[in-house]
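Notes for week 9. Today we move from apo structures to complexes. The key idea is that a small molecule is not decoration. When we ask for a structure prediction with S-adenosylmethionine present, the ligand SMILES becomes part of the input, just like the chain. The input block below holds both the sequence and the ligand string. Read it once before you look at the output, and try to guess where the molecule might sit.
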Amino acid sequence: MNSSTMQRLLDACERDRSLHEPARLRQRIEMLDRLDDALLDAHDRAEDGQVRCRAKAIYDGLDAINRRIYQQIRREIQQGRGADELLKWASGGSASCDQQSGQGYDYLDALLSGVLAFEAPAEGIAALAPEMVFYQPTPARHIFDAVRRLSLSGSDVLMDLGSGLGHVPLLAAICAKAYCVGIELETAYVACARQCAQALNLANASFIHQDVRSADFSSGTVFYLYTPFIGMMLRSVLQRLAKEVAQRPIRLCTLGPCTSVVANETWLTPIGSVHVDRISVFSSNYAA
Ligand SMILES: C[S@@+](CC[C@H](N)C(=O)[O-])C[C@H]1O[C@@H](n2cnc3c(N)ncnc32)[C@H](O)[C@@H]1O
């Protein structure tokens, strides 16, 4: 972005007072993104300090409004009233999953990140073994979609296999009465997820530091996989899940390339359409 484009952006921000209306969260988040890019460019170009200060002041003003909203949502969650409050903000002008599949991020991720307010993970993330997939959070719009489509009840236990920082169990625990468990190999991610659950008073979310291959699945009724592993590792975990079906019906919910592998499992039936780039849900159809 050159200097005059940046000036025009700043002029537009200052003119558009609607950006200060609390309800215009999405527009503010999108503007903050543009201002962030502009500030980075200005830094690279060694832009005049006055312009940078002006951009920073506009950024901080808009950011402060969002922070107040995130704090308000956090307070509601802490008092057990988070679902309505969060869903109210998330549905305001959201690009629904029908409009936007794929694995990119949007303003809902900024909303979720502001609400969950994770501490930065400790340094020294361990390298993963072959077939394990590096950490990348499920885009928030897909988590909202999964929560809606799964209609989790108080008797459900959702297990996120390879839960990273815990976005899925945390959001599901806020929005539903189900007990939500994250299983993750990386200690630093588990510590952040636990800290977040505690700060939000989420008694129905917990995080286990373990390799999914040796985890106890016996309490799970719904298993979520955002392609945490591939190849033989995925196959062996699916075999273990198939054995659970002898005890009780289960559902699997997937996103990403693991979906096509899961779709080929003969003990599962898709509920609705199957898409690699969207949430797919499968139900066990007979005892394996
Ligand atoms: C693509 S990320 C998904 C993160 C999370 N489920 C989400 O959707 O936001 C995959 C995660 O699985 C973890 N992982 C990979 N293999 C694992 C294993 N065998 N046991 C536990 N965690 C594993 C990785 O460390 C990473 O955090």
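The domain at 107-284 is CATH 3.40.50.150 (Rossmann fold).
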